[in-house]
Amino acid sequence: MEEKNNTIVIDGKAIAQQIKDEIKKEVSDIIDSGKRPPHLVAVIVGEDGASLSYVASKEKQSKEVGFTSSVYRFPNTIKEEDLINTIDFLNQDDEVDGFIVQLPLPKHINEQRIIERIDPKKDVDGFHPSNGGRMMYNMPAFIPATPMGITSMLKRSNIETVGKHCVVLGRSNIVGTPLSVLMSRNNSDTNCTVTLCHSKTQNLKEICLSADILIVAIGKPEFVKEDMVKNGAVVIDVGIHRIEDKTKEKGYRIVGDVAFEEVKNKCSYISPVPGGVGMLTVVSLLQNTLKAYKKEVYQ
Amino acid sequence: MEEKNNTIVIDGKAIAQQIKDEIKKEVSDIIDSGKRPPHLVAVIVGEDGASLSYVASKEKQSKEVGFTSSVYRFPNTIKEEDLINTIDFLNQDDEVDGFIVQLPLPKHINEQRIIERIDPKKDVDGFHPSNGGRMMYNMPAFIPATPMGITSMLKRSNIETVGKHCVVLGRSNIVGTPLSVLMSRNNSDTNCTVTLCHSKTQNLKEICLSADILIVAIGKPEFVKEDMVKNGAVVIDVGIHRIEDKTKEKGYRIVGDVAFEEVKNKCSYISPVPGGVGMLTVVSLLQNTLKAYKKEVYQ
Question: Which of A119, A136, A168 is the last residue of a domain?
Fold first, then answer.
């Protein structure tokens, strides 16, 4: 962590590396004990550039920690029934601990049907409603990667959460909604009073100013300004945007949902973009896969 | 609804009757069209007085609206496997649209295993994590009875919810937690900014004072006092307690989590105890059963 005027800029990369080192050590011990390593499978349909790059990153990082990693590739034209058959096969395969189906899927495929076809026991993305509900009821569950990464980030930065007011901006299914639930659970590393804000929220500024921990996943570049943040607050930025900037060689710069430069001096902690939350997502997937291997979530 | 000093005391009984009349009409039309009526089954284990009385009320109200109602009764000594077999049988039976297993169960039975064994398609109590997760992701779902009853109460009282600040006190699995999620969903009859408070919450009074809609499910008699409520707020009281009162013939009176007499004059709307939220729970179960019959949640 780097200090600037008493503000700690959270180093997502270092935290990610720390977790990966721990996983790697554990996998190494597993192999030394004569057992097979955890096996993560990614299913990808089509040639979407972002999807290909996510899957490549998952594959690379899986291998880094010693997992077996497989990728099932299908053309955009695959029939829904054939994808369902693949899922049924992976659900049954004892040598596969967890798998993900990279989203989005082509329009002719019912995404929700696919997600709900995955055996919750192998749903290491945590997108199956059964895992969502288990998280909500504070039962063992696979937690979606971004919310999980944020709790790891807070915990490993020794940020106090119990009883704090956590304000979450944005209620998407993959970040804001599950995160708001997770942060309110009765666990030692969460246990916040949580307010979930969204497009219909009135008095947004006032609510943000009451936040001890402000988590922004609203999808608008540099939306949160200095006058929306309480002195000493923790600010976690989930957004990532490419905005035009002719002063840069590439012609753009990467920003988050928070106006970092003006907000950072008011915070006790702030997560930057890039180099913040985004570094933790694949790591969370690896943690879920290790849990699936060890049958820690479902017996 | 009864007016007192401009405060409207919500009449839970009248709302419940209104909904039951609608269900009864629909069931009557179904029968007239030559189809069988919806069929709700309650499974009860043991002789717990409260459980027997809940199940009797469910049976009675089911019959009132024209449903077929069955009760499966088992002794306290039933083996978990035998209960599982019963659930598997009910899951398969095409003549059963929905069923509930009355809680609590005897200690030798793993309650969570029983709940997760119920086919989510027939889980009209909405306690299966899969229905919890679907609700969280704003997909079609069976909503648990008390949260659903509260939304019915707000809607049928024409209380504006969109963009309002809803503060929920208490994060139980059957009320506070699912309710806080439900109230924040992007639907015309919810869509609130929601703050979920619990035992670890700091500045509880201040947060309550910021509520446009205050829903109290904290399990403490008359916990919410006048000085915790904003003028003109809507107050919904989920608690129910019997407290000693020698001035009453029975030696006790029934109160909620809200100090009704002192709070009521500050509110625009308030739900009383008894005669408030409690009147809506069985009705919500009936609504879920009708939805299950019509396959409105799962195809």
Answer: A119
Q: Report how many domains make up chain A.
A: 2
Q: Return residues 49-108 of B near A (CB < 8 Å).
A: none
Query: B181 and A186 in contact by Cβ < 8 A?
Result: no
In a domain, A182, yes or no: yes
> Is B164 found in the same domain as B107?
no
Amino acid identity of A119?
A: D
One domain for residues A113 and A152 = no
> Which residues of A fall within a CB distance of 8 Å from B111?
none
What's the pTM value of the predicted model, to 2 decimals?
A: 0.96
Q: Between chains, do B184 and A193 touch, taking CB under 8 Å as contact?
A: no
Q: Write out pLDDT tens, residues A210-227.
A: 999 999 999 999 999 999
**Is residue A234, in this structure, part of any structural domain at all?**
yes
Alpha-carbon separation of residue A268 from A180, B18, B53, B56, B179 (angstroms)? 21, 54, 54, 57, 33
Range(s) of the domain holding residue A154:
144-278
Residues A165, B202 contacting (CB under 8 angstroms):
yes
Model confidence band, residue B2 (pLDDT cutoffs 50, 70, 90) = low
A195 interfaces chain B, CB cutoff of 8 Å? yes
What Å distances lie between residue A97 and A122, A139, B259, B279, CA to CA? 6, 20, 53, 47
For residue A274, cis peptide bond before it (omega within 30 degrees of 0):
yes
Asked if pLDDT for residue B4 goes beyond 80, the answer is no
Cβ contact A186–B198 (<8 Å): yes
Q: What does the pLDDT look like over A194-210, one tens digit per residue?
A: 999 999 999 999 999 99
Query: What whole-number distance in Å separates Cα of residue B109 and Cα of residue B115?
Result: 11
Does the pLDDT value for residue B3 go beyond 80?
A: no
Supply the CATH number for residue B48's domain: 3.40.50.10860
pLDDT tens digits, one per residue of A18-39: 999 999 999 999 999 999 999 9
> Mean pLDDT over residues A139-158, rounded?
98
The answer to the question of residue A220 being in a domain is: yes
